[in-house]
Every structure is written in structure tokens, then in C-alpha cells.
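Why do we care about 3D structure at all? Because function follows from shape, and shape follows, mostly, from sequence. That is the central idea of this module. The next example makes it concrete: a single protein chain, its amino acid sequence, and then its structure expressed as C-alpha cells.
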Amino acid sequence: MGADTPWQYIPVVRAVMTSTAAGFDRSALDLSGFLGEATRVRDVEVILDESEASQHRGRATASTVEVLARAVP
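And the structure:
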């Protein structure tokens, strides 16, 4: 068997890095689309505003459940 050289790994690293970058790109586009919708902005505000109160009660509030139900297809 021949000795491995660092150059043998470049195609493998390139493929993995390209795939990883494409995944980050898709995620960023999906997130920006989600956050760009006006109703989503309000939905996120509602969830964040009520999260502390719901933690103290140990359950989600009705409006948080409603927002999450709309978000899940």
C-alpha cells in the first residue's frame, strides 16, 4: 500500500464543505422567508412574550398553542 498524501483528501473535503454550505444556504433562505412574513413576526412576538408566563404555569397559553398550530403544516 502506498502512503496517503494530503492531496487525496481534497476532493472529499470539497464535497463535504459544498454540501454543508448548501445546507446552511437553504436554512438561511427558509428562515428569512419565515421571519419575513408579517404574521410570523407577530407570532414570534406572541410566543416570546408568553413563554415566561407559560413556564411558571407549566403549560402553554392558548394563544401560543394557536400560533403553533398555524405554523405546523
